Amino acid sequence: MKRYRNEWKYRLYEADLAVIENRVAAVMDLDFHSGQSGNYEIHSLYFDDYKDTCAKENEAGVSRRFKYRIRYYGNAPDTLKLERKEKMDGRCHKDSAVLTRQMCQKILDGKADELYWETEDLLVRQFCIHIMTRLFEPKAIIDYERAAYVEEIANVRITVDKNISVSDNVAEFLTGNYMRYPVQEKSEHVLEVKFDDILPGYIKSIVSNKNLKQSSFSKYYLGRLKLQEIR
Fold first, then answer.
1. 17, 26, 46, 163: which is deepest, by most CB within 10 A?
2. Long-range contacts of range 60-66, CB-CB < 8 Å, 24 or more positions apart?
3. Burial 204-215 (b: 16+ CB within 10 A, else e)
4. Mean pLDDT along residues 45-66
5. pTM, entire model
């Protein structure tokens, strides 16, 4: 049975960033991806079908939808993750599978039919089927810096994403050699709060800051809008 988690998103401005992060850091620990600076880079390649269904459903606010992305951290794309993120009535569920660089390259080279027979992973096979039948293809690269905090007992995760950018040079996803375009103003960031059923009161009080406004926010969708704007 799939378990869906709450995912609250907020636009966070520079003036409030230090205050919020200090409060979060006082009660939660940095996650294992964090380096000495406390931040790490995330690179995600998003896919959509020939109708741009994922982008259009996001714009329309369809209550049940999904999207695929391939992701790696830092500057070493040797191990990547394929993720299918589903949303239902405002709650999220994510399935993931490990990809090698060679598997990812096959997807980028249009060889999903070969990869389907070479893997036994059900998620990868499902993705390959969608590539072959619904013509899913890479549409945008979304990059950003993340600081992530966790509270393991209550299974709460708070992330602050900064310097979000987009590129349509999808062929260079694994090399990192592509032009990036800012998705937001430099002073604007994104705060996400993810939890199962109950958000502990001492954490809820942090995001109840009067300057934080909860909103629907899709990095992929805003990235696609930015690409349309600059073309």
1. 46
2. 61/216, 63/87, 63/88, 63/89, 63/90, 64/88, 64/89
3. eebbeeeebeee
4. 94
5. 0.94
